[in-house]
Design goal:
Layout (H helix, E strand, L loop, with lengths): L5 H10 L7 H13 L2 H17 L1 E2 L6 E2 L13 E8 L2 H10 L4 E5 L17 H9 L5 E4 L5 H13 L6 E4 L15 H9 L2 E2 H7 L1
Parallel strand pairs: 3-4, 3-5, 5-6
Antiparallel strand pairs: 1-2, 6-7
């Protein structure tokens, strides 16, 4: 792709690094930005800078947050006996949108995937075990996507927590195998939370 402007080429190359954005889509976005008033693009630039410089990880659940402790974890009206284990912030958003879960979350920051070089040591498993050790959590809900890597992660956590007096459950498999949690419709996801099953049963059902 030939450019008449080096500035445009640089902008297109930067935008094309985003997931799912090819060079042609990047060019369309760059040209669209050029048509906008300068204050609009300045606002976008500021928002991206603020996101990169000021975003925090919640000290309790590891979710992305504007504050040291996120709004969910600082809400005293939620059920502290239930802890929902998810991969990342996209899954928290998806489950919150169902309105069917009123406990707290634990964000792993990924799933075990040897082919991608991600092992248990790369996830927030130590702090998850610390929460369970305190004894306030009565149920761990596995709410990872229906993939082989996610199932491996679920089983690893299940074995890790086996010596503690905590129930483990998994969301019902209304979600097609291989699907990502964030792309599941809210009704299906909400029902899968409500109809969760003991994790031992989920192992047998496979």
């Amino acid at each position: 792709m030939e450019f008449s402007s080096k500035l445009l080429e640089n902008a297109v190359n930067e935008i094309a690094q985003l997931p799912g954005i090819g060079k042609r889509s990047a060019l369309r976005l760059a040209l669209h930005l050029l048509k906008l008033p300068k204050e609009n693009t300045s606002g976008l630039t500021q928002a991206l800078n603020d996101l990169r410089e000021q975003i925090n990880f919640c000290s309790y659940c590891h979710n992305l947050s504007d504050l040291p402790v996120c709004e969910i974890c600082s809400n005293p009206n939620r059920d502290s006996s239930m802890l929902c284990v998810v991969e990342d912030i996209r899954d928290v958003i998806a489950i919150e949108n169902t309105g069917q879960f009123r406990g707290y979350y634990h964000v792993l920051g990924g799933i075990i995937s040897p082919i991608d070089g991600v092992g248990p040591q790369d996830l927030t498993l130590d702090s998850l075990e610390e929460k369970v050790k305190k004894g306030e959590v009565k149920e761990i809900i596995f709410a990872l996507s229906a993939t082989m890597e996610a199932d491996t992660t679920n089983f690893y956590i299940y074995k890790m927590l086996a010596s503690y007096k905590v129930n483990t459950s998994a969301i019902a498999r209304g979600i097609p195998v291989g699907d990502e949690l964030e792309y599941t419709d809210e009704v299906t996801l909400g029902r899968s939370i409500l109809k969760r099953v003991p994790y031992e049963n989920a192992i047998v059902d496979k």
